[in-house]
Amino acid sequence: MKRLPLPRALVLCIGLALAGEALHAEPLPTVWNLTPFYAADSDWETARKALLADLPRLSALKGTLGKSAKSLRAGLDAISAANLRFDRLRVYASMKQSTDNRDAANQERSNLAGQLDGEYHSAIAWLEPEIQSLGEAKVAAFMKAEPGLKKHAEHLRNSLRQARHTLGAESEAVIAALAPVRSATGDARTLLFNANTRWPDITVDGKTERVDDTRYGLLRQHPQRAVRKQVFDAFFGAIGQYEDTYGVTLGNVVQDDTTMAKLRKHPSAVAMSLGAEEIPEAVYRTLVAEVHKGLPTLHRYFKLRQKMLGLPDLHYYDIYPALVTQHKTYSLEDAAALTLAATQPLGPDYQALLQTTFKANTMHALPAPGKSGGAYQDGVYGAPPFVFLNHQGDFESVSTFAHEWGHAMHTAMANRAQPYETANYSLFVAEIASTANEVLLSHYMRGQAATKEEKLYQLGYALERLRGTFFRQAMFGEFELNTHDAAAKGEALNGKRFTDIYCKLLKEYHGDAAGVMKIDPLYCQEWAFIPHFYRPFYVYQYATSITAALHFAEDILAAKPGARENYLKLLAGGGAVAPYQALKNAGLDMASPAPYQALVKRMDSIMDEMEALLAAK
Q: For FRET with 508, which of 78, 149, 224, 381 sits at 20 to 30 Å CA-CA?
């Protein structure tokens, strides 16, 4: 069937312009080499058994930390070494499974890693209570007497800070031993979604397309509205069949989180989550409040979208097609070249490290049957960072490439600058490096735009990233607040209740009552599509991170004195300083309304520019 042009839609076909630079000519590997972890799966199993055999030795350290400063250092050094061994086992098993969830050996290895998690953390559950029993004065004296404790200073400080929320050694051991049981619902959700769901087939442009997690992300951008509706109906119809099951799995996660908050004497689950990393709850609450104040700007964007797409009304399936259609595909090599070009403002050291890391053969890049959807970066101290992608060849894939390699560079820089004990950075800063790369890419591409249509495409893409990363992720964060509040009040949570809570937010954020966008009830099943909800109070950090990333990137692009140095210092700092304070040290207070208000103003300014371009002849 011939594709019909959309009424009033803008269409363009662009080539890549890289400011005189050639495309990344050297082919990039598309399947990662995991031998930096283990030469073979059998070596993983040998290492797992070796760590299990060493658990009694770790348990025997109990009662020794307070004997002397040297005893404290020896005990913490031993546990650090064991932590690194455990990290390597966990990451390898997780990465292997995500490449093929159907593989029985991958499933078994993942299960064994989960069991090891419980046994390992049960064996060292005495650690925090014992550190806390020493008290601040004794720990300070030991720190002064033993320089080798310096690398453990942040751990010791944080442990003492958390004393009132830590249970006795026996109770902590029980909780740690239950870790595999507590994580089982998330594992069940992963298998149901990625391996066991029978995803529907539809016909698109004369081809049969399977509407699974990976293809849904691409097909929902289709220029024909009828196809988009067909994709949404098929995808959420398939998910909706399991509403009750997803309700049980997510309900267990929420209840577990709520129960743990009570056990650890926190006022709420969100206070427990943020308090673990010294993030003021005001950050979360201020974000939600400022997002609600900014909803008129979001609704303005939706009305602009409706106008540019030439639609009589707007539905939820109209969010994802580009405002300006770009007929261009990008190889991995194109994505690498664009990422290198876009990150030039970060300086030659950053560029050199990025190019070196590209060559480490640590990327799993293309979609495959049984492979998990989405993208991530993972790794272990002492090994290069690993990047997991599902490259589709569209500009979204280029942006995802830049995003995940931003994570990889953050990891590489922290690992280079920090000892193992402080290299691991907080989730609160984890998305800043990745999202800043997206902002830099967007700026670079707008600078390369040779026509009005190309500029409109890039402005529209930047606008959509702000919508998706700021407003959408804040909505997810509010959903988590509401579901946990309901659990704390003793309300029953099931699939229908989750759908009702989510639907109310979906309609409010998208202006359903005001006639801005119609939310069809079937699509309120979307909560079951979001895997991040199984990691409670994680998603709000996408919204805070794009806010911070925009602040840092714009200062760097404006060449403000010290801006680049402050940003790179933040990345290299790893976890040496508590994340909220680390951002304050870099000049940004995320508990203040100002950075969120600046982002909303940025959105309005983009729309001003787009409307001026559209009005120009």
A: 224
